[in-house]
TrEMBL record:
PANTHER family per the UniProt record, alphabetical: FLAVOREDOXIN, FLAVOREDOXIN-RELATED-RELATED
Lineage: Bacteria, Pseudomonadati, Aquificota, Aquificia, Aquificales
Organism the protein comes from: Thermocrinis ruber
Flavin reductase like domain location: 11-159
Alphabetized InterPro entries for the sequence: Flavin_Rdtase-like_dom (IPR002563), Flavoredoxin (IPR052174), Split_barrel_FMN-bd (IPR012349)
UniProt KW keywords: Flavoprotein
Flavoprotein is among the record's keywords: yes
Family: Belongs to the flavoredoxin family.
Cofactor(s) needed: FMN
A GO molecular-function descriptor: FMN binding
Protein name: Flavin reductase
Domain of life of the source: Bacteria
Amino acid sequence: MFKTIENGYTLGYVPRPLVIVVVGENPFTVGWHTPVNKNPFLYSISIDKTNYSYRLLKDNFTINFLTSEYFEQILIAGSYHGDQVDKLSLMKNIHLIDSEKVASKSILESFMVYECEVYEKLDFQDHSLVIGRVLAIKYKRGKVKPKNKLVFSMGKNYYCFNTKGFYKKI
Ligand SMILES: Cc1cc2nc3c(=O)[nH]c(=O)nc-3n(C[C@H](O)[C@H](O)[C@H](O)COP(=O)(O)O)c2cc1C
């Protein structure tokens, strides 16, 4: 039989792919993100209001997709606050570059980047759901593949990588 639990939002080892969101020049790791509309293409992230990035966020941000090669850097971006620690100096092999359509920077090492302008914000008690309108989808040719190894969070400091992707038709 089922049991119920209060405050068990981290329970359930459902892997969530991790991205690094950059607000201005501040990178932070996000597991709560998803596409929400096709046309216009809208992509949402949920930001903890205690994060420096929440205070920084005005009207744009970028979503940076990185392979598991950058696992360490993803953890660093998700472990320190940008107003207290110079995260970028700790995140070896990560370089910020100018974006094409928004003021927030992009991460050069990403295999794909969504440049977003804030479309809507929904403030909850401790998180803010920020829906971005994707103004530019940038990708590296030959690097967006189903076999890309990504980092997934499973809650409570558990992580996993996907194995190989495969094509299947019914
Ligand atoms: C695996 C993982 C997933 C995370 N997911 C989110 C998330 O979805 N939303 C969020 O606001 N913070 C998330 N965080 C926490 C922030 O990345 C972390 O608090 C970070 O230090 C915030 O940086 P900042 O204060 O410079 O904005 C996550 C951290 C980790 C390690």
